[in-house]
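Running log. JK asked me to keep both predictions on one page so they can be read side by side. First protein, sequence followed by its tokens:
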Amino acid sequence: MMKHNDFKIRIIVIFLILLGLSRAKTKNAGLAMLLCTLPGGGQFYTERFLTGIIIAGGEIGLGWFAYKYHQEKDYEKRNSFLWWELFLFGYSLADAYVGAKMYGFNIEADVDRVSLNFHLKW
């Protein structure tokens, strides 16, 4: 059985690895999806920290409730939480993929260069 200090060290190491991977100028979509095996890992990799915290909290919370209802032998509620967990995991995968593909994309438009012209011919 893993000691509590060993668990803390592993979490810190995983966090440092994610932080090191997120320093790259471009993001690999495959790696972002692979990191989704950790709750919020793909979002942290693409430097979308708030989304990562929300997804990680949701996945951990749903997993905890599924475990709780499994212990109480309420399999209908457990299965419901597991389906929601699966949906959130799928969303996390898609979000990490899009986040990696769109990383570094500047969405601001240069308003001075945008113009609209109408030409009427009679």
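And the second, directly underneath as requested:
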Amino acid sequence: MAKPSKKKNIKLFRLLVLVVLISANTFAWFIYATKIDGSVSVHVKGWDVLFEAGENEVTNIINVNVDSLYPGMNDYHYEIKAYNRSEVSASLSYEILEVRLLNNTYISEEGRTYYNQTIQPTDMTSVELENALLNDYPFSLEISKSNTNIQAGNGIEKVNFDLVWPYENNNDEIDTEWGINASNYKKSNPSSPTIAIKIKIIITQNPS
């Protein structure tokens, strides 16, 4: 009688391990990186944030990174998807916990609470920090949601991150200052993103 093949046994073992890992995970993610014009590295991450019936809340902490920052850069787009596979409708909200912009780190009031830290007088709320990223810099980073409600069964909600920095921004002095600072930071920290955002995604069941 022929002996069982060792290769078949190994393949069967790997398959069983894979099935167990997939079954045990609530959050599944797929990560890949692409290069654009040989200068901007954009990390695109897609999350299947699954909401299950009977749970009041599902949360996940996600890091959003912008590798390079300069006037005239390619528009940056980052997307998070949440899928509702339950029998009840749900709502998605988010809180910005922390933003590191070059060498400066800003922790929101919500972030202080998450880290069990004391809120400082200079801390901004998540909404204030979001508005600052949209309006207070030569670039504009907008965070937006696609829907206000995630339908039951097959509903999808998207949280979008869009950063633009036009080459002609009508303020050459500020563009030059920030461009030089971002370039110097990247030279000193080649493996670190120029902007790093930590955001908390919250999915809650809608009232019946």
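Observation for JK regarding the second prediction: Residues 17-48 have pLDDT under 50 and may be disordered.
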